[in-house]
């Protein structure tokens, strides 16, 4: 091991435009010189512009900054002027000898005030604003956040808080996921058992649902919103200029409803509300009585939710029951449907026709494309972008919500301190890269993209505090992609976040993740192995580094932010390293030596882009994939065969090697069926090193092979099972193969 110093670079490049604290970043800002200074801490605002609820909101938010706002009829400091040419949600701010907010609609007036707040500098005795011109309008009309209240339930007050904080950042669509397998959360007067029975489960799985053995907490859990409460939330959201889109899931994710009315299923079997997460075979039968039931439910839903879109789910509906149900077979025959996908399409079409007849619009997850998209349906694309692309090409409206950028139930860092999450890896910087317009659309097709949305699934989010932790600051990064005409760089966004919004959220008691404050480990190849460096937000930060070798203590010293420590190729030992950051936060790693540390690895094909952290270096970076899987230690492949070719720096006498696999069947990750390892000294003629199957009950399985050969190249041919076995989650699909790490040892 040795030290190498890399040049430090400044984290923040200075922005080439006029930077203010306003987030999302406005389209245009120009400082006109000097400040507008007000004695005292009261700001008068033209009276009669805002409703009582809006004034309460604005008063509370300005108060957090130390500003009292008062309505005034006579020469208020803040006045509003109507501008016919502005777009609906657009606004302008001109600050000179007073403050003028230009608008075309109440949204513009509201957004103007929110931005104004972010321009204020307040002392104990005065307020000042920069003299400035701001012109601003959103890029997309659908700027959404979703909240799943079925897996865990949040009170009316908490839901209103969620909406209030959304509106502060100019989100305008709240997608309220009201029904799912684990709980039905909306009162439907015609079907009281939906909430009497369907709103409560007897137990809840604790820990990760793929844990073996699985553990449960045996306690009744649930809750629901009365229609009066729903009206209260919708009315509040309207004041905040937020549209509420309810989701009533069908035909899948319906076990809570089927627990209340089992006759709506294919089998009619009485089953409880499940306390386990996942996808269940029992779904609504496609028979007429189930369809009529759902239309009756929608009748009451339409009374409560005035916004045009109604979300009907449509995702993850196994056709296991439909394929054998006599009633479903009859529906297929009568309607000349060829398969269960067409039956799903028929089912959704019935809902589309119904909603259309009531003057509303249907939106559903991208599975509603399967078997043919219903004429008026809009699509919410979550399984990547392809569903959105296909729908837009067919001329249907689309909301982009791909897991890779928009799933806020994923981990936001790989630090041990992250609370248990479903999996996946979505740090702030990745969210920032989101572009709601997928590649490959013409301008006309792209015009069907209404916008984007982040989803907050709550299997592992047990409290509202944790909801906020998962949403902030990621929602601010997402909004940049939904709002900004010209999105500034990530580093200038981050600067504004750290300078203003982080403490602003704190002052509003909005919980937020501090993950970005924990320095990130960066690993790079070097000529002789790999170099590790830790990057904190503060360029002057120093970290206390200590290590041990093969269990023996070695050194302890300070390293600077960005300074790297190099680990050299060769050896068979391991380093126990421990880094202590400011605020006592610690990170521990084991770094394993081997002769292929940092070696070149060719991968055919590439891993799935979701699970490709650090590319092929991940396989030879000295860190072994572990059981706690956050998507950054392992490379994940979803192909029918994989080939990895390792090129060693020199031909050597090799005595052993290892390769590791992850075995998490609950997440559709399986051990390979066959592994064939070959070696070569020229990369052309190959000899067999080892061939065999991998079978184990362990979660992390390392093949450890001893065989002495002389080689420069190794080739790993890896073949997964053809399909996930019957009776298991994901049956019939190609399983995932997760690989890490390859170690090759010299004699
Ligand atoms: C989804 O995440 N199942 C839409
Ligand atoms: Zn059926």
Structure commentary:
By secondary structure, this protein is an alpha/beta fold. It folds into four domains: 2-136, 2-Layer Sandwich (Chitobiase, domain 2), CATH 3.30.379.10; 142-472, TIM Barrel (Alpha-Beta Barrel), CATH 3.20.20; 519-592, Immunoglobulins (Immunoglobulin-like), CATH 2.60.40.10; 600-746, Sandwich (Jelly Rolls), CATH 2.60.120. The chain is 22% helix and 31% strand. The chain contains 16 helices and 37 strands. Strands 10-11-18-19-20-21-22-23 form an eight-stranded parallel β-barrel, surrounded by five helices. A hairpin with a 5-residue loop joins β29 and β30. The model is unreliable at 1-16 (pLDDT under 50). Bound molecules: acetamide (ACM) and zinc ion (ZN). Acetamide binds next to loops.
Topology:
Blueprint: E1 2-4, E2 28-39, E3 42-46, H1 52-64, E4 68-72, E5 78-82, E6 91-95, E7 99-103, H2 106-117, E8 121-122, E9 126-136, E10 142-148, H3 156-168, E11 173-177, E12 179-180, E13 183-184, H4 193-196, E14 200-201, E15 204-206, E16 215-217, E17 221-222, H5 227-239, E18 243-250, H6 255-260, H7 288-304, E19 309-313, H8 326-334, H9 340-357, E20 361-365, E21 378-381, H10 386-393, E22 398-400, H11 403-406, H12 428-432, H13 443-446, E23 449-454, H14 464-471, H15 474-483, H16 490-507, E24 520-525, E25 529-535, E26 542-549, E27 552-560, E28 564-568, E29 574-580, E30 586-592, E31 600-604, E32 635-637, E33 642-662, E34 674-680, E35 687-692, E36 700-719, E37 737-746
Parallel strand pairs: 3-4, 5-7, 10-11, 10-23, 11-18, 18-19, 19-20, 20-21, 21-22, 22-23
Antiparallel strand pairs: 1-28, 2-9, 6-7, 6-9, 8-9, 12-13, 14-17, 15-16, 24-25, 25-28, 26-27, 26-29, 29-30, 31-33, 32-37, 33-36, 33-37, 34-35, 34-36
Helix pairs in contact: 1-2, 3-5, 7-9
